[in-house]
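User: Can you write out an input/output pair for a complex, sequences first and structure second?

Assistant: Here is one pair. Inputs:
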Amino acid sequence: MPQSMVRGGSSMGKVIEINGPLVTIEQPNIRNGEQVRIGTLGLIGEVISLHKNSALVQVYESTEGLQPGETVEGLQHPLSVELGPGLLGEIFDGVQRPLQKIMELSGEQIARGLSVSSLDREKLWHFIPTEKLVVGETLHGGELLGTVQETKTIQHRILVPPNQQGEIIEHAPEGDYTIEAVLVHLRDAEGEIQELKMYHQWPVRTPRPYRARTQSEQPLITGQRILDTFFPLLKGGKAAVPGPFGAGKTMVQQQIARWTNADIVLYVGCGERGNELVDILETFPQLTDPHSGRSLMERTFLVANTSNMPVVAREASIYVGVTMAEYYRDQGYDVVMVADSTSRWAEALREVAGRLGQMPVEEGYPAYLASRLAAFYERAGSIHTLSGDSGSVTLIGAVSPPGGDFSEPVTSHTKEIIRTFWALSKPLADARHYPAVSWIESFSDYEAQAKLWWAEEVDPAWSERRKQALSLLTQSDELERIVNLVGPEALSSKQRWVLESANLIKEGLLQQSALDEVDSYCAPQKQFALLDLMIHFYQQGERLIDLGAPVEQLTQLPENGKIRRLKSTIGNEQLDQLQAFSQQLWKKLEQIQAEYASTGEPQP
Amino acid sequence: MKQLEYRHVTAARGSLLFLKGGTDAALGERVSIRDKDGTLRNGQVIRSSEQMVLVQVFESTDHLDIENTWVRYLGEPFELALSPDMLGRVFNGIGQPRDNRPPIISNIVRNVNGAPVNPAARAYPREFIQTGISTIDGLNSLVRGQKLPVFSASGLPHNRLAAQIVRQAKLPDDASNFVIVFAAMGVSYSDTQFFQSEFESSGVLRNVVMFTNLANDPTMERLILPRTALTAAEYLAYELDHHVLVVITDMTNYAEALREVATEKGDVPSRKGYPGYLYSDLAEIYERAGRVQNRHGSITLIPILSMPSDDITHPIPDLTGYITEGQIVLSRELHSKSIYPPVNVPPSLSRLMKDGIGRDFTRSDHPHLSSQLYASYTRALEARNLASIIGAEELSQRDQRFLKFADAFESRFIQQGEDEERSIIETLDLAWELLSLLPPEELSRVTEEEIQKYHSWEGGL
Ligand SMILES: Nc1ncnc2c1ncn2[C@@H]1O[C@H](COP(=O)(O)OP(=O)(O)OP(=O)(O)O)[C@@H](O)[C@H]1O
Ligand SMILES: [Mg+2]
């Protein structure tokens, strides 16, 4: 192994201690937050604290084999990402290294110390300048330079980096360029010439600026009934999906990534399984976006720090992700970022805090857990960009509470911060009631805004029906408790009908298999039509029972089985069939009604 | 320099040895420690600075004295020599022979810690493995390259179940057999003996590599043993093109060893004294299962762990469940009813099942059928629960049917012989036969066509 050596020069330092992913270095003039390259392997790390004669570095790669005395080089910039065309369709690691490229370089295992640029330097992009690109005009941060067709569906808007402005001295005409080509020369206020390229860098721990926050109004449609109809989320909103292992957090997030009506989807696999990312990489290119009709991969990209990849990069991956999400937001897009799982990020935080000897407050987590979580979710929002467009970042984080206990720190803090809470329940998952979203524990603070959209776009009765369904579900939970104490005989006919109707809602509406070709995505119109049908059926049935019809007569209708299967027998485009089915059902009920009305023996 | 032996111990505590710095010890470097009797112990550098080096000693520091202990830095991490000759052999946690035969000599040598697999290089596992066990094949199907643990508890027949899986596992239409890597940590001699004779009697011993650390072997060696075993598995799978089935038992002993060192080091504990990094540490092991692109072989991993006090929320099963691709949970209740294998159906899960079954792999009704079985059985357990409160006679006719279904499901579907190998078609047909105890209107997870084709409700009860 190499002998220690200290080369001259103030930017070089040396390792004095290695303790897992934390390395103490001796290096004059290093700054907090600065990136460093360590040792013969060239491991990348970040300075996280400064002391009198030393600095502490968290290393994004395994430190195995590192020795005291190895050299350290300061890179003079904080952890940053490259922002430009070529992000979509890619999979990056936690510090934005392109994993496909890395595979070409180092095979199936990730070698250490690789230095690969995030964006392809060779690829040519067809740049079309905007008409406003005129010599002598002034450009401000966030303004449009021109566009590049990044994928078939997404036009990449090349923006002036937020912190730059000046007078246009010279600019490139339309044509094919690599991202390194200088497109515009600006003269800034100091008279210095600035070069603008197709990409720029941005430090991940600094939120990107915007002009103003706006009120979110549009629901984020996911095609999942329990989410859209019962616990809606808005574009620009923040949501969490907590649940014990195997309850379906990843499936919920993958379903959202598949079917959401956002423009761009960023999937961050933070401390989870490698195979889950492969699943996306293998299936998304074949799936079509229900909104644009094109391959889903054209609007999707991924950040992956799987559970076996270094922990420190896991902490970074969330910020790397959200910065890229903000970048597309700044281009005027609605972006959804799903993070699976924020608990792993919090654990990475805890691990570093523990090694730093910081005082743990709850379950080993440092005191700043809550504020870090809040600051992360604060980067969600619907905004006016610097150039006056509107865009949004919606954040959806999975939470993996130890033992499924929602009172643990990460879940409880997250619950305070987010506005939509999709709580997954183990008993539901055990019965394979998917998505296992609990109608008791979940909530959404966005119902009021969502209601306006549903009334306008789908049906004014949406809010009313939703409430009726939720009330049926809670009544039935109550009744089930009674049954479990004293048996079903204690219930009245009407109460038994409530139980039956709630079951119908659970099986025919709430349960939605992600694996069912027809039912995987349920359009809002179909969501409402099914809901409306079931509530109507309940109400009509209740009237018949009042007239004296026995519950059995209703539950034995063969339509019961059919209603439960409508979700997968009738496609989103076949609502007329659903209409026809309902008409027949109502006719049948009318016949029953006639029977009882004529005998004139209404029950008391 | 690495040939030098240092006598620079400053302190010893539990499994930790504190040494003077200045030796440029590399993190993870292997060290050899010689005591005053000349006995050698194995250790690994876990912290290194210019002033101090911390070494974890597998055999613990008992009976070492500060003056008479010599330390040699070997200049390399823990590595395993690999060769096809490993098959049929027995090793300890660091790859030294335990079968009185010569060590493996090879110029293929790998760091046992491996390096993380690039997620972009993985291939999604989707080939159905038939284990011949209905609760697995029908309800929690295993696929080639999956990591599917068995959550057990003391006194439950996890070893017999694992042995049955090893004996019977095959691809329905593929003759190529599995090669087996067996890793045992902190288990009793009789447990390893059980497996050895199982392998012997089924004639697979020549295709097995065993790594064993018994209950009275050095505890800290358990921290490296699964890594050693998986290094062997990777070699067999990716270089020799084998489909490898890895059985690791008992992960609870592994995690306890980890907790022991963590406590000695003073790491901040999270739950039940286990260090916060237990999750990542377990993941480094479990994530080595899988398939990679352009390689023929695969690694299917079946870790066995015992749930302390039968508690599935205990950190060890809990974190394992968060990493693995499902779990087979064993139930004391079924076991006490003499049902073998006592698979507790509701909490068991196979996440990779969804892509490995159905028309192209097993039969087109399989996905709906398994979902229906889950729904009906959980419904039936509710009925049984109700019966225990109000008495079975008081149940509605509907609940009585479910009660009957619960009993039949347990005694005919879950229960099977230790040598009984059911084909997947037999399993599926049996499932339909049992569902025929319920009227068709209770079956909303299957399609009307499937009911017509397979269901035979004859009324009754
Ligand atoms: N909507 C759904 N439709 C069909 N199956 C589902 C659905 N949701 C979950 N499942 C089933 O449940 C399994 C577990 O789901 P998932 O992997 O999403 O759990 P998780 O909560 O992310 O668990 P972990 O915390 O361990 O990652 C899936 O593999 C799938 O079989
Ligand atoms: Mg998950």
